[in-house]
């Protein structure tokens, strides 16, 4: 698993390609592999999807449409062969037309140099015929809601199974991680070193393993200058930063034997659900991590964002990460 650190690859498509290559290189081809592509299929998203098909060379492509609304033409092998992607070129039909018929019949790519622009797969095109199937706004759950539910389910592993009530963040015992034991990197934006701790505190981080040895020459945190392409062993919340003792306080359900392998914390643009921070019971006075007295000019952090979309009644849920 690799932590991409963003909810969309639109701002960093090159890294997205590198991440896909890294993950796919670990596939042993001993069992079938099902790849669930993202829903960005317009503009550069469709071009990137074309690149993915060429890169991964699937045996089957399942394309699902909705009734009375066609997002894009069927992704047939011929269309993918001719259409240029975001980073790959399509095979021009004129190139073949210029060849004589006799030469074309005997033409074959050299061994080991197959034409990557001409993937061979079977297209399974699903187009429902019953009304209102998949119509946006009818039975659709927004990706932000699904993402929050996934994070809440993951945080539920922190809760003691014998307790009936939910313990808030400030009641859970974190791991103490020395500054010198892990390297830090903010994935989605540039943050000044003087502001890095503002960004890390109370943030969702990927617990990663980089092959390089962590070498700290100063008392401050170890900062990476480039985003590494590395394995992610799990996720956690930096509950606090203790500057005097040079410690991060990290909440995570990852078992200790795997935590010993972690030497890098990647901070991305994936936010902790607002209800986890706001709905902390048993507090008097100010709620930890929540304030209205904040300097919004600081890069790397920001105010809680309001969700503009409306949720259907069946999609409303209480914040309960048990």
Give descriptors for this structure:
9 helices, globular, 2 domains, 322 residues, 15% strand, two-stranded parallel ribbon
Write the topology of this structure:
Blueprint: H1 13-24, H2 44-56, E1 60-64, H3 77-82, H4 93-97, H5 101-106, E2 122-126, H6 143-155, E3 175-178, E4 183-186, H7 196-200, E5 204-209, E6 222-223, E7 231-242, E8 247-251, H8 256-259, E9 264-267, H9 274-278
Parallel strand pairs: 1-2, 4-6, 4-9
Antiparallel strand pairs: 3-8, 5-7, 5-9, 7-8
Helix pairs in contact: 1-2
Would you mind describing this structure in some detail?
It comes from Alectura lathami (Australian brush turkey). One of its GO terms (cellular component) is nucleolus. With 322 residues, this protein is an alpha/beta fold. It has 2 domains: 34-126, no CATH class; 143-315, Elongation Factor Tu (Ef-tu), domain 3, CATH 2.40.30. Helix content is 21%, strand content 15%. The chain contains 9 helices and 9 strands. The chain has helices at residues 13-24, 44-56, 77-82, 93-97, 101-106, 143-155, 196-200, 256-259, 274-278, and strands at residues 60-64, 122-126, 175-178, 183-186, 204-209, 222-223, 231-242, 247-251, 264-267. The strands form 2 sheets. The protein has a 7-stranded mixed beta sheet with strand order 3-8-7-5-9-4-6. Strands 1-2 form a two-stranded parallel sheet. Strand 7 (231-242) and strand 8 (247-251) form a beta hairpin. Helix 1 (13-24) packs parallel to helix 2. The chain is globular. The protein starts with 12 loop residues before the first helix and ends in a 44-residue tail after the last helix. Residues 95-114 and 309-317 have low confidence and may be disordered.
